[in-house]
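Task 17 of the worksheet. Students: predict the tertiary structure of the chain below and write it out as structure tokens. Keep your answer in the requested format; marks are given for formatting as well as content.
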Amino acid sequence: MKWLDQAERRFGHLAIPRLLRLIVAINALVFVLYKLNPYWLQQLALDPAAVRRGEVWRLATYIFIPAVGGPIADFFVAALYLWYLWWLGDGLEQAMGSFRLNVFYLLGMLGTTVAAFFFGANFSTSMLNASLFFAFARFFPDMTIYLLALVPVKVKWLAWFSGAVILLGVVFGSWGYRLAVVAAFANYLLFFGAQIFQDARQRRDIALRRQRFETARGEEPGEALHHCAVCGRTDATAPDLDFRVARDGQEYCTEHLPKIAASGEL
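Model answer:
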């Protein structure tokens, strides 16, 4: 992507290194504040009506809301969520670099905000984090993770499953929901859409060439490597026969070799 290369040359020095680690740290702080006073989360959520009333900090603070799982599972769910973000961030920064990851995340935030304001989708950070995971899966598709520390699953299969769930929502959801999904995944489409299209076209071309090759082979069964000068059979019409070349330069099947040998031509 030329525009991204040019932007990195000009603004690469402004990138925030270890961006996802910083977000994880602030999420952890917000979790502590939430345990002290649950009202904190309401003040940070992405609420278009509240933003229109002047609470503009909500355009950014919603990314600092950690996942929670009820009074009993709060600490476990929050710890798992923070570890997940840390893991994704380190992998993506290794693959993309700090600047590109910063741009990818910023575009994801922008898409989530558009989805909330124009299409009424309350995605919060779910779609933003999903776009991070899909990007991770493109770079590390064969990495194996263990669900519940027991079941080994490759990252690409989890990505396919997550994509299928989202696709079901797109197929059976409203047009508002469909447009909201497109907006939320704008970062992924901008970064990887051209490559996905190119890969699909390449797979189609390979399939067409294979089909033409197999069709051509089926239309020309008479092209054989071996041919008996006596009976006319070939390895195509009689694949179980063995063939030999005589001294006269002719090729014969094994059934006719004794007669040729007796005549002294071998």
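Marker's comment: The longest strand covers residues 144-147. Residues 186-219 form the longest helix (34 residues).
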